[in-house]
Structures are given as structure tokens and as C-alpha cells.
Amino acid sequence: MQREQIYLHEMVHALTKEGDPVSTRALRNRGPIVYLTDKILSEAGYDFPQQVMYSRPPTDASLPKTLPPHERPGYDWETVARAMEVENRYLDGIADAQAGAVRQTRILGEAVENRLTVKEVDAMHGELASSTQRPGEVPYFGDRFEAGFKSAVDTQGRSPRSKEVLGHIDFFYGELYRNSKLFRRLFDAFAGARAPGEGQAKWKFVLPPEGAAGDPVAARFAHGVDETARTVHLSGAPAYYLSNEGIAKIERCRELTEAMVQILTRRGGVAEDLAHRNRGAVVWLADRILQEAGYPYPKRIAYATAAQSDTVAQEQLALYETVARRAASAEDRHLDSLHPKRNRQVLACLGCRPRTHS
Ligand SMILES: [Zn+2]
User: Fold this and answer.
1) DSSP letter at 46?
2) Residues in the 5 Å CB sphere of ion ligand 1
């Protein structure tokens, strides 16, 4: 336990006159002081692990052996930690609504400008602002899409059997282009989806073999954009991502949107060691595009995913919820504040020529 945590804990006691959980509840609960202490330190930009339960493992190593298992600190830790994530979702909502969300200068121990997502979105903003493409000069969307993309195929290169999924990909992007201003800007300004150059193939979408969901090897979560082969591999089995409402199944429309944003902007994913605590610009942009286009999806808050068959990875992902959710909303507040006069949200400004920000 860090000195800051101890000092603040006692200060919150003094200010609120609230107590800690009594010993019989202290293995299943944190109590208000621990929650508030963690929340405040998080807002202040520290990167301390959260305290899941009030009781801590005793320093005397022999002590736990004298207790029955269900009274030992750490018993059923994962269940209690999951409960804490759900509590935080609820309590943060109340705290932020009542006290007002803080404009942070540090997030998880890092200056806000150095956060991966903030840096990437900033860089993209600059690229868009310097784009010379003007609306009105661009030809019909369907023609441009056809010039850059082949119709979808299966892994053997045959035309799709599952027409209901693949036959509608061009229709999906057409609707997205119609309904999202941000998507239009990206598609018009970035060169990633233009017609292939000499000796280059068109982009193609590949679905895993039918029945892959029942085959543990083929169902491995291995989707993504292969820049060299100009191929988008769509996931066969459901996979999970971390949202501000807990873990959620990746929606096909989200997958398609993220793939296209990645193709357009030529930005890759997030390194594995950062993926639980960062989204990256592709995830961020796709979220905002889907929101603009009216999809009722939760906000994706981390780049990491977990396969349906991998319950350990799912469990691990779920335990980052509070950390990732708080970081994502602090990043969004920062990004939204960069263009307060033009619009409350930076997405409407992407590509504008702001004075405050180059
Ligand atoms: Zn206390």
C-alpha cells in the first residue's frame, strides 16, 4: 500500500465521518472510504492498483493457516473483484454526475497528451487538416468502393455462400458513408481505400470456413487486417471486447468499421502490453462513427479482446473495466475540450483547421 493511499484514506475518514466495513464483511466489501480513496487517486492521475476488499492479507504469514478457508483474505477474490467493477460502474456514474467529471492532466501516471489514443487522434487530426481533398470533387461512393474492393470471398477464394453476411458488405459501408459525417471525411481524405496501383490487388474480405465456430482451431480469434495481402479476415467465432458496460461480444458492424478505418488511416493495432489500458485511434474513431450512424453499441474502452473459448482471458479483460473506463472518459474529455467553440465533440472538428491545435 502506497503512502498516498494511506494518507488519503485517513483524510476521507475525517471528512466524511464514515467507517470501514466491520470484520465479518471486510472480505467481501471495500466500504465507502476505500472506494472514494481509489476514485480520487485515479482522478489525480495516479496508477495504483485498486483495493478490492477492505481486509488485506495479514503480514504474519502463519495467520491464514489458523483461519478456515472462507475466512482467509483473498478467498473468492475474483468474484469480489468482479462485484467491485459493477459497483464502480454504478458509483462512478453518481460521483461524476454530482461532483462533475474532472479535467485530468494525468491519466494512469502519464501526461494526458502522451496517452496513446490521444497522440494518435491528434496526429490524424493534423493529417486530415492538411488533406487537400474537397467535398464535391469526389465521385460516387459506390464506384470508389468497387474500385478499391473486391467482393468478399471465403478462405478458398470462392464467392461467398453466406450471402447474408458477405453480400451486404458494400451496402453496409454505403449506409455508413451516408449516415456518418466522420466516416465520409475519413473515406474521402485518406488514400488507403483507393483503387490499387499497378501489380496490386484489390482489398478483399475473407470469412472463415463455414462451421469454424465448432472447430476449436479454426475458431481461434484471428481476425484483422493484413496490409500485405490486402485482406480483411473476419472473425468466425464470437469474441469479446471490453466496453463501458462490461465485456461484450464484438458486433460484426463494429468489426467491419474498425477494419475500414484501419485500411483508410493505415494505422495498426495496439501492442499487447498496452492493449488492456488503451484503445488506439482506430477503436476510438470506429466508436464515434458507429455512434453517429445510430448504432446502439456500448463504448469500447480497450484494444484487448478475448476469444469465446478463453474464459481466463475474458476474466482478465473484465478486471480492467474500471481502469480502462476511467482512462477512456478522461481521454475523451481532453479530446472534446480541444475544440470547445466549434463543437462539443472533436469528431465534428476532425479535419477542420483549428487555431488552438495544429
Ligand atoms: Zn479506514
Assistant:
1) -
2) 20, 33
